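Need a sequence for this fold. Nothing fancy.
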């Protein structure tokens, strides 16, 4: 299958003051762009979404907050999603859950991929297992591969440049190649319609 340029959203999940995972998110935006894709960083700290009271679809037409309206359009227009999640108490960050759960149908029939991180050696994989179930329920099943990032604070600089560029290019290459395959396959399949 030939990979065509894709519209990808890199959805980051932390709003903490001294957050380190934003480095990984920036790295993935750059890595996607380097592969010829349009990658947009979705940052809950910039969006300032309200705590979930009503989902986007529950607002009368034209009455959703402007940030939700813009994000809904970005999600509808995307071919796939890269979710960048830290591990908080063996689970996903509350800001990420809040962001993701504002939407539903907008994600349908598109793949997701999970990059998970931690300050320690496990790379956030415990959060990724919970996130995998959540993403599937939202209609954006995750690809089989994960991109765990242990000691994220040491892996990238503030701009997302990896300290060991060759190693991270190789690790992310397989992961992104798999997302590309699923995104292209599902994009082609959507042209013929969806089950409902």
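Here you go.
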């Amino acid at each position: 299958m030939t990979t065509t340029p894709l519209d990808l959203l890199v959805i980051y999940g932390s709003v903490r003051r001294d957050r380190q995972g934003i480095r990984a998110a920036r790295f993935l935006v750059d890595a996607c762009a380097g592969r010829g894709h349009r990658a947009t960083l979705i940052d809950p700290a910039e969006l300032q979404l309200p705590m979930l009271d009503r989902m986007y679809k529950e607002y009368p037409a034209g009455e959703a907050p402007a940030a939700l309206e813009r994000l809904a359009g970005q999600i509808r227009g995307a071919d796939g999603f890269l979710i960048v999640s830290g591990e908080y108490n063996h689970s996903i960050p509350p800001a990420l859950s809040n962001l993701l759960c504002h939407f539903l149908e907008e994600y349908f029939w598109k793949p997701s991929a999970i990059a998970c991180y931690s300050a320690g050696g496990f790379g956030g994989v415990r959060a990724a297992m919970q996130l995998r179930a959540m993403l599937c329920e939202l209609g954006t099943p995750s690809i089989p591969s994960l991109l765990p990032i242990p000691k994220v604070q040491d892996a990238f600089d503030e701009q997302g440049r990896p300290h060991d560029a060759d190693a991270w290019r190789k690790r992310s290459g397989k992961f992104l190649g798999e997302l590309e395959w699923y995104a292209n396959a599902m994009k082609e399949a959507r042209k013929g319609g969806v089950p409902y």
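For context: The chain has a mean pLDDT of 96.
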